[in-house]
Design a protein that fits this description.
heterodimer; A: 164 residues; mainly alpha; 9 helices; globular; B: 202 residues; 8 helices; 80% helix; 0% strand
């Protein structure tokens, strides 16, 4: 694979990394695991990139690979230590976690998602992202009717967890 | 649904993650080795294909050949060997075909299906080995117990029924033990995937 092809992938991913971070934050509960999962998703995306032909949106394609990695492919590894060392030039944004209610509520929301099972995590995330039933059915590989049923269930679950 | 709309607002207005990677970070990640379950499936499956056959490498062919001849097992061994090789090739072909079908970019359900299917090929291979071990075991017992050498060596006060019973019990325990150990290994690797697959079916 050519250098330009790789560079194109890297810059596209850098721009769209928000999607992967949302998935990582939903499926892990600490920074090290988050970074480790991010790395595995990146590797899987890169392996799948030659087959990406733009039939679907880049973001949908990213979701699919990211969920697949988080749900099926990723196994917690012992390389976490190593992973932390690679990112010494990590550009950390200023960390202001609990300084306003918005962040606190967001944290609660992530906690609620984390407490769900693997499939429900994906459903909750897709619901919050306002994805259409069609897109959800495409990502998960279920029928649109089933997607609708599952969406209703996840709404109830989220409600129950966050407003007891 | 008012509350849920509020959740959506919070979600959609979230700031960028506190963890951010630069292009050079991502560049390094691209060249890292994957630690995905697929790699483990390949390693474990190859071991499973090799292990039932590896003991053959340590067999002293000349002396076992004599034993086979003494007890009249030569034809039997040849027959089962040919069948075994053909079956192994068939299984390896199926495994390879299913393994190649595992793609991270397909839908969540499809991926779970293809991983589980790949593992199922190996599971059936292991079961095939256990069943064959039982069949060959019984067949060999039959030929050995009816051979002239064995009957001559057998003390008079030991009945054939006792010989058969003990042999079959030992064979059953061995097969059962292997089966249990295998279920355990298989479960550890795929428990989560199976749970997720069932969850998706609901």
């Amino acid at each position: 694979m050519t250098k330009e092809f790789e560079q194109q992938f890297v810059s596209e991913l850098e721009k769209n990394q928000g999607i992967i971070h949302k998935v990582c934050r939903s499926y892990t509960n600490n920074e090290t695991a988050h970074k480790d999962l991010f790395q595995e998703i990146t590797i899987q995306l890169w392996k799948a990139y030659p087959k990406f032909r733009g039939d679907s949106k880049f973001s949908t394609w990213m979701y699919r690979v990211a969920f697949n990695t988080a749900i099926s492919l990723y196994r917690k590894s012992k390389r976490s230590v190593e992973t932390t060392q690679i990112f010494d030039n990590l550009k950390e944004l200023e960390f202001h976690e609990y300084d306003d209610t918005q962040d606190k509520q967001l944290q609660l929301l992530y906690n609620a998602i984390y407490s769900l099972n693997d499939i429900d995590k994906a459903l909750a995330l897709l619901y919050l992202e306002n994805k259409s039933y069609k897109e959800i059915s495409g990502i998960l590989g279920i029928s649109e009717v089933n997607a609708r049923v599952k969406m209703n269930r996840i709404k109830t679950k989220l409600k129950n967890i966050l407003n007891p | 649904m008012g509350n849920l709309d509020k959740l959506k607002d919070i979600w959609q207005n979230q700031k960028e993650s506190t963890i951010q990677f630069t292009e050079s970070d991502i560049n390094k990640m691209v060249h890292k080795k994957s630690s995905s379950i697929v790699k483990w499936i390949l390693i474990i499956s190859i071991l499973e294909f090799l292990l039932p056959n590896i003991f053959l490498l340590f067999t002293d062919f000349e002396s076992t050949k004599e034993v086979y001849q003494d007890y009249g097992l030569s034809n039997l061994v040849l027959f089962y060997s040919i069948v075994h090789v053909l079956v192994i090739l068939g299984f390896i072909y199926l495994f390879y075909k299913n393994y190649k079908n595992i793609h991270a970019e397909c839908s969540v359900k499809k991926l779970l299906q293809s991983i589980l299917k790949t593992r199922k090929t190996v599971k059936y291979y292991v079961y095939y080995n256990l069943i064959m071990a039982a069949i060959i075991g019984v067949h060999m017992f039959y030929l050995i117990f009816n051979s002239q050498i064995f009957i001559e060596k057998l003390p008079e006060n030991v009945s054939m029924l006792a010989v058969w019973s003990i042999s079959l019990v030992i064979l059953s325990i061995a097969v059962l033990l292997f089966w249990l150990v295998y279920r355990l290994i298989y479960g550890v690797l795929l428990n989560r995937l199976q749970k997720n697959y069932i969850e998706l079916q609901k």
